[in-house]
Amino acid sequence: MSESDRIQARETIDEQYKWDISSFYKSEEEWRKEFEKVQLLLKEVEQYRGKLNQSSTLFKEFIILREKIIIGMGRLYTYSKMRWDENTKINKIKSMFDQAQNLSTEVERVLSFLEPELLKDLDTFLRFITTDEKLSEYKRYFAQLKEQQQHILSDKEEKIISEAGAMAQGPENIFSVLSDSDLTFPIIKDDNGEEKRLSHGRFIRFMESYNRDVRKQAFEAMYNTYRKYINTYSSILNAHLKTDVFNTRVRNYSSSLEAALKPNEIPVEVYTNLIDTVNKSLPLLQRYLKLRKKQLKLDSLEMYDLYVPIIPDIDFNVTYEEACDIILKSLEPLGTEYTDVVRECFEQRWVDVFENDGKRSGAYSWGSYNTYPYILMNYQNNLNSLFTLTHEIGHSVHSYFSKKRQPFATSDYVIFVAEVASTVNETLLFNYLFNNYDDNKFKAYLVNYHLEGYRTTVFRQTLFAEFEKVIHEMIERGDALTSDDFSDIYYKLNEKYYAPTVNINKDIELEWARIPHFYYNYYVYQYATGFSAAQALSKNILNNNQESVSKYIDFLASGSADKPIELLKLAGIDMTSPQAVLTAFESFNEYISALEELL
């Protein structure tokens, strides 16, 4: 390996490009002291069991103790995981994270009595929260608890379910081991004719190749490998579905869809409206696919032709410093209150910027209640990293405002609203770049990049969501699903979404086997709803509507102070109506027209 091919060691990276996570702990010794403190606090919990309804004073003491435990546990867990993510080769740090995981399980077990005990005498506790300022912070918690009352079981039953939690993770863990560790993919030839072993990480790179033979080779090699294990994958997915259905029935939900959405206070209509609206808008996807086919000059558009950029790569080298400057300028429509936080993010080193040997791949935004919201990056000097950085900044500023303005009880927000903040940032960045660079090839590349966001985040994720809904409903009816059944359902959905413009290659029927999100229990629809809501919000913000900006900041600062649907309504978006998704598709249509003009 040449010197230039080596990934740099972390100690060689300048400190200004590493996150400063001292807002957690100044040293590992401080971490260990808090670990011992949380262990001691846990021992105090038992004295409150069965007595919480005796007085508001006693209940308040317990609530304060519980907050100390959960906040301390959050710091311990997050810090150790972030330190491990810096370099996964350091066993000492991995050991710290393992200890934090074990303590987290113990915290959950010790505190599991709370909700069953509250539900035994809910009226008393509802009275308590009206008599004390600290306890009043939990009004939302009790509103949620009351709504979930029929789905929370006895103390003993909740303990059993808590203990069984590890078994419920079995299908996802088995899927991960099989897919990430045990599968061996064949060797294929890359663009230069060099032999390279196919992997999950390389698959999309091969699918983006301008050499069609490379794309076809990679596509067939990927699914021929999965075909060998397809019955195993069918068994794993069946086990996961049965776990979801068990949870649905034991907790008295009408369907697994309701069981997944109701705890986050999302109406089932949001899910079904999304599928219905996207289905009605499939002619727009066909319009884009026809443009792709025309631009690639293909007689037939195959499933392995969907990821190759229809505009050749452009030379857009952007350093981290330049990215910070561009992002700040792109976010100016959100006002100084917002950009001041972004500036602090850069200046106070919330970002761990560059790849180093042993560092976790990908990107995320993370922190705990009383720390900064940090960002892990593996920054490359390209457009994709620029968009990833502003995406994660969206999450971090959301967390910053929420934790600044909300008490601990309502400081967290659910995934349903999380993707809105990140996608608004991406849309504002796209708008800034499009309006400030004159090169038509670059503009066309940008528009196509944005259109691919619609295709992969709205259309593709909704296809996934529809597949999840169908297979869960079949298991709920008592149907048996074989690998052939899964494949047939998945193939027909691809046919509905992509035909007739795309030739639906037989191998695509196996794609369901490689999607980890099917083990996340109705998770993916939130990508599509979040993206759609963000398009509508961005349109309002870019119209220099100060009221819209003010409402948006208030939305970011709301945490879980109300139902997520209601919070979005305050920002001007009603996700119980198809309108937000329809507005997104109006923009999608406009972008297709813009791309046609630029080509």
TrEMBL record:
Q: Does the keyword tRNA-binding apply?
A: no
- The keyword Zinc is assigned to this record: yes
| Domain Peptidase M3A/M3B catalytic positions | 206-586
Keywords on record: Hydrolase, Metal-binding, Metalloprotease, Protease, Zinc
Top class in the EC scheme: hydrolase
Which EC numbers characterise this protein's activity in its record? 3.4.24.-
InterPro entries recorded? OligopepF_N_dom, OligoPept_F_C, Pept_M3A_M3B, Pept_M3A_M3B_dom, Peptidase_M3B
Give one GO biological process term.
peptide metabolic process
Task: Output the CDD domains linked to this UniProt entry.
Answer: M3B_PepF (cd09608)
Provide a Gene Ontology MF annotation, just one. Answer: metalloendopeptidase activity
In the record's cofactor note, how is the cofactor described as bound? Binds 1 zinc ion.
Q: Where is the Oligopeptidase F N-terminal domain?
A: 123-185
Cofactor dependence is on: Zn(2+)
Purpose of the protein: Has oligopeptidase activity and degrades a variety of small bioactive peptides.
Specify the protein name.
Oligopeptidase F
In its UniProt entry, the species of origin is given as Desulfuribacillus alkaliarsenatis
